[in-house]
């Protein structure tokens, strides 16, 4: 069997393990529930929302498509990072805690290969999380408000197909950002045998970055924070798409990914497995 | 020489902080043998096994497993090594079979087309077929141990490393594991099996290594390890004083009067090294000692262990 197909076999087993876990299935349900609740709440409320500028919420009543953007904006602050933090806690710390790590390594699985599979499974998990939010939003929005041509922020109208393409770009961008968070999570996961400890640490890191990002006096620090440009996914709704912030945000995400994957590898490659 | 050894270490040591968990041991596990790795809890057996399997990095010393001598090369031969380390560990919410599927998927050399048959065969071999599709969390400790042994048998192995495989098993389960070890050894697999209860594995072993406080205090074939201890001679006689004189003349040590030990007993016990028992009897009779009973007992492993370490076997190190 070739190296590639055996790698994919382990990756598939890993994704199945993640997907089969009840706790994760409940997490997916929560991710899907948020846009549904949002759509229902807006449908039920009759009062117009005066003078708050062009946010996605105010556009929802006209087109269900905007539920997707509003749901992403809401969930990228906490729920999606929390999902990544939870999965990364399981990745290494969880296997160490349960003792299954020693059996995986003696199969044998080379540590670099295991780390690569674990990381890719986290990225797959992040992509699934983002996709679940968007698909649930489009379903709920479509049902309650209908889907049709979309008016961009500049006022120009584009067809639904064009708008969905822009939404796909936003999803890819956010998945890349969550992949950077997953690299941090994987590193934290190699530091401990307590999966919950790893999850809490990663969640606190995200919250701390949001808090720092909200303090104007620290604006010199802001460009270096991973979360600083997460909201730039909304730039896909400009005409034409405004790429600059997302491009810089992507570079920052790639830098975080490179640094923390290296750290995870350095830590894990020579670690004594005594659990 | 090393070709005939499945496992060989030189001055292997591991320190955790100030604790010398393994303190410079030279393990020699002969290919094709069943090596009983004995020692009380905390004597360093699991730490040694973890080092052999590349889970823990030695603080000092060298390791050779199936001819591979570097950490990278040892990872490569691990697919020929089945291992049970420090008790079974699986995903609790997966069935036993799904857990084995996962381990098989992790094995880059395993053929996915034969996965199902190999998994079924391993489950069958440990007698777990009726429970194969139950969740692991619902397993009894004995079933968990069996699943861990099944995992070690997923692929053809040249070496099996079984760390306390009988832990938590009932006497029937212990017998079955012993029989399994014997059968695997007859098929040519080298077995390294650890235990803190020597009685559980004594009968299947061809070789023994005895650990105490991180050191290997005895090693060799069963006869070599047990033969190092002196047999105990017991003489039943009412003529205590003349009997003792004869025995001391023959070089006896530690002559003990058993009349103190129990009422109604008229006997003494001693160690007479290097004198054949028949000569001891002849000398006693020639001296007019009324010999009513005479016995020479080879010591068990328990006595041997106490002789080696000055402590009982189940004392924690
Ligand atoms: N990760 C660890 N950190 C510190 N000490 C350890 C660790 N693992 C084992 N030890 C110590 O090393 C000694 C040997 O332990 P172990 O190899 O598990 O013994 P055994 O398997 O013979 O019961 C014990 O005193 C134990 O407390
Ligand atoms: Mg042990």
Provide a descriptive summary of the structure in words:
The complex is a heterodimer of chains A (275) and B (317). Chain A is mostly helical and 275 residues long. Chain B has two domains: 217 residues, Rossmann fold (3-Layer(aba) Sandwich), CATH 3.40.50.300; 66 residues, Alpha-Beta Plaits (2-Layer Sandwich), CATH 3.30.70.100. The longest helix of chain B has 16 residues. At the A-B interface, α1 and α6 of A face α3 of B. The complex binds adenosine-5'-diphosphate and magnesium ion. The site of adenosine-5'-diphosphate (ADP) has 11 residues of chain B, from β2 and α1.
Q: Count the domains of chain A.
A: 1
What value does the Rg of chain A take, in angstroms?
20 Å
Tell me the fraction of residues in β-strands of chain B, as a range.
25-35%
Number of domains of chain B: 2
Question: Can I get a quick summary?
Answer:
Chain A is an all-alpha fold and 275 residues long. Chain A has helices at 3-20, 22-44, 56-60, 65-75, 79-98, 100-105, 111-145, 160-191, 195-213, 244-269; strands at residues 150-151, 157-158.
Question: Which structural traits does this protein have?
Answer:
heterodimer, A: 275 residues, mainly alpha, 10 helices, 71% helix, globular, B: 317 residues, alpha/beta, Rossmann fold, Alpha-Beta Plaits, 2 domains, 6-stranded mixed β-sheet, 4-stranded antiparallel β-sheet, 14 strands, binds adenosine-5'-diphosphate, binds magnesium ion
């Amino acid at each position: 069997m070739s190296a590639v197909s055996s790698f994919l076999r382990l990756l598939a087993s890993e994704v199945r393990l993640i997907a089969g876990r009840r706790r994760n299935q409940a997490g997916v349900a929560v991710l899907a529930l948020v846009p549904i609740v949002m759509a229902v709440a807006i449908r039920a409320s009759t009062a117009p929302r005066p003078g708050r500028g062009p946010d996605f919420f105010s556009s929802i009543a006209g087109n269900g498509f905007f539920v997707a953007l509003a749901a992403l904006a809401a969930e990228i602050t906490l729920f999606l990072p929390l999902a990544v933090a939870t999965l990364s806690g399981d990745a290494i710390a969880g296997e160490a805690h349960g003792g299954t790590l020693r059996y995986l390594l003696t199969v044998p699985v080379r540590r670099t290969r295991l780390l690569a599979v674990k990381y890719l499974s986290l990225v797959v998990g992040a992509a699934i999380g983002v996709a679940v939010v968007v698909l649930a939003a489009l379903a709920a929005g479509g049902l309650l408000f209908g889907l049709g041509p979309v008016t961009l922020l500049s006022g120009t109208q584009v067809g639904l197909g064009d708008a969905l393409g822009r939404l796909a770009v936003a999803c890819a961008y956010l998945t890349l950002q969550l992949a950077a968070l997953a690299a941090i999570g994987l590193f934290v996961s190699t530091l401990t045998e307590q999966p919950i400890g790893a999850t809490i640490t990663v969640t606190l890191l995200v919250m701390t970055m949001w808090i720092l990002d909200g303090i104007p006096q620290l604006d010199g620090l802001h460009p270096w924070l991973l979360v600083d440009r997460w909201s730039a996914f909304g730039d896909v709704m400009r005409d034409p798409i405004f790429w600059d912030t997302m491009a810089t945000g992507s570079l920052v995400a790639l830098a975080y990914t490179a640094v923390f994957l290296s750290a995870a590898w350095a830590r894990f490659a020579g670690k004594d497995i005594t659990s | 020489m090393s070709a005939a050894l499945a496992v060989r270490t030189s001055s292997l040591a591991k320190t955790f902080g100030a604790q010398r968990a393994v303190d410079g041991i030279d393990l020699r596990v002969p290919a094709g043998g069943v090596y009983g790795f004995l020692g009380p809890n905390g004597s360093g057996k699991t730490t040694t096994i973890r080092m052999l399997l590349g889970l823990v990095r030695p603080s000092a010393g060298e390791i050779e497993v199936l001819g591979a001598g570097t950490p990278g090369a040892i990872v490569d031969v691990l697919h020929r090594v089945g291992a049970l380390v420090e008790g079974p560990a699986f995903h609790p919410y997966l069935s036993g079979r799904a857990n084995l599927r996962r381990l098989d998927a992790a094995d880059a050399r395993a053929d996915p087309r034969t996965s199902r048959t190999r998994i079924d065969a391993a489950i069958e071999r440990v007698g777990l077929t009726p429970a194969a599709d139950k969740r692991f969390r619902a397993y009894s400790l004995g079933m968990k141990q069996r699943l861990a042994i099944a995992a070690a048998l997923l692929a053809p192995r040249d070496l099996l490393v079984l760390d306390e495989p009988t832990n938590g098993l009932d006497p029937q389960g212990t017998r079955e594991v012993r029989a399994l070890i014997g059968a695997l050894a007859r098929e040519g697999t080298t077995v390294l099996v650890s235990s803190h209860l020597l009685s559980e594995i004594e009968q299947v072993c061809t070789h023994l290594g005895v650990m105490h406080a991180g050191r290997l205090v005895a090693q060799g074939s069963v006869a070599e390890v047990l033969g190092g201890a002196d047999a105990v001679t017991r003489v039943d006689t009412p003529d205590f004083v003349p009997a003792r004189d004869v025995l001391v003349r023959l070089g006896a040590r530690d002559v003990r009067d058993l009349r103190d030990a129990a009422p109604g007993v008229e006997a003494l016990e001693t160690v007479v090294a290097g004198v054949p028992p028949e000569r001891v009897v002849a000398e006693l009779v020639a001296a007019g000692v009324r010999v009513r009973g005479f016995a020479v007992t080879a010591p068990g492993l328990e006595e041997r262990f106490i002789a080696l370490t000055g402590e009982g076997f189940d004392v924690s190190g």
